[in-house]
């Protein structure tokens, strides 16, 4: 039986939002941005919110079971915990966030130094390390939020430029992942449509069910404890190489 990725080549994970209090008195995760991928939260339990920064301003969107919230590349987002918030994350272009598409809102001096950024963003192995990474991201995030509240988007634009400079050297490595993942999934649909129009249903011989269970049910994501999956068709670097992770990846 041929192996297929999830529909559309998306990534999926489950998050239990952190309940650690940050310096602004808010419980939650590490603010960050994706540069090429749209991300969606499908809320499955509890209550909380997602704080977002865009050039259009600051917003806080309540989250409760049944809500789906999604944000385009460039939207800084911070998951906020109120009471037992649980979210299933759907990530466009599975494999790209793991390869560095996600950038934390660390202070400018860290963003300007690739080595310092790599060290600060490294995959944590303990609660203390995850909390330290979160606190550093919040420290850089709060001035961006305050500026937007005052009607000034320029600090956010400066952060965007710094994030682009950080990831630009990696983009050539992203293209094969995208071609093998999301692009291949779209092209496969095109091939199926052409075959059906020609009266050819041979691809239906590849039918069947695929099942995945969490390979790391209690990892440290950007926004919370993260259950991740190893799914055929998704390219993921080995554990120690996952220094920059998916929303909520080890989030």
Structural commentary:
The chain contains 5 helices and 9 strands. With 251 residues, it is an alpha+beta fold. The two termini are 32 Å apart. Residues 235-251 have low confidence and may be disordered. InterPro entries: RmlC-like_jellyroll, RmlC_Cupin_sf.
Distance between the termini: 32 Å
Percentage of residues in DSSP E strands: 25-35%
How many domains in all? 1
Uncertain stretches of 5 or more adjacent residues: 235-251
State the name of the first-level CATH class: Mainly Beta
The helix count comes to 5
The CATH homology group name: Jelly Rolls
Return the CATH architecture: Sandwich
Got a strand count? 9
Output the helix-strand order: EEEEEEEHHHHHEE
Largest sheet: 7 strands, antiparallel
Mean pLDDT: 89
Helical amount among residues, as a percent range? 25-40%
CATH topology value: Jelly Rolls
Helix and strand composition category: alpha+beta
Radius of gyration: 19 Å
Based on CA inertia axes, which overall geometry fits? globular
